[in-house]
Amino acid sequence: MRVVVLTGAGISAESGVPTFRDANGLWEGHRVEEVATPAAFETQPTTVQRFYDARRRALHAVVPNAGHLALAALERAFGKRLLLVTQNIDDLHERAGSSHVVHMHGELFSALCRACGERSRWEQDLVDRPACPACGASELRPDVVWFGELPYEMDRIHRALTRADLFVSIGTSGAVYPAAGFVRAAAASGARTLELNLQRSDGTDWFHDARHGPASRLVPAWVKELL
Ligand code: BV8
Description:
alpha/beta, Rossmann fold, SIR2/SIRT2 'Small Domain', six-stranded parallel β-sheet, 9 helices, 11 strands, 21% strand
């Protein structure tokens, strides 16, 4: 049995990481669609850097919840038969023990150098334009996929979706593409599809099954059933 799991901000909500919708689209006082774009970074780099610096700092203060831990247990049992894809840029899956996580929208704890293209693990602020550890240029940006940018590892994700027996979406509103279309690609290839979310999402009708409630309760119960 091959499983693909897609997670969104809802799985980190109970760890204290605000979601995009619960902050009704406002995050650190900004509309994400206005700040998470290359154009915003070009025109107002300090605002964008401060937006991500604040979220990177907040990450040191939160811990994984039972939902993250259950998915780490699933990986220990399923190994390479499980592909965990996350839209989240936090590191809570890794801190819960998941070892191969596909961050399709990048990671807060990674910095991308616009001069040399190198990625470096980065836990501090970027607003003061620190030097790239690889080339020394002061051209580091958050290693995060903004609106209008191509998400990471799409080929690997699509291959897994076409081979999956089961696709499970956890804690996502199904508002942003291409992630919101994964359920249809999986179903078209014959996979069963299940949504675990606090409430109905924009994509609920595309799933064979849906369970609604907090991830910290639904995910451990589902993993227990599967194991
Ligand atoms: C691309 C990283 C093409 C940044 C993110 C018009 C103009 C320009 C683009 C477009 C356009 N129309 C469509 C597009 C495409 C666009 C898009 O889809 N826009 C939307 C707004 C319509 N997509 C893109 O631009 C993507 N790229 O298309 O590239 C391309 C092609 C070729 C070459 C080059 C380019 C890139 C999108 C990635 C943007 N980056 N994140 C950052 O974090 O700052 S998006 C971000 O929002 C997330 O990563 C996620 O993907 C998305 C939605 O967030 P969710 O995770 O779902 O969170 P949300 O708050 O929305 O929902 C939380 C859910 O959890 C809720 O349902 C809630 O009920 C539930 N919940 C809450 N608490 C709990 C819970 N569930 C369980 N338990 C709980 N306790």
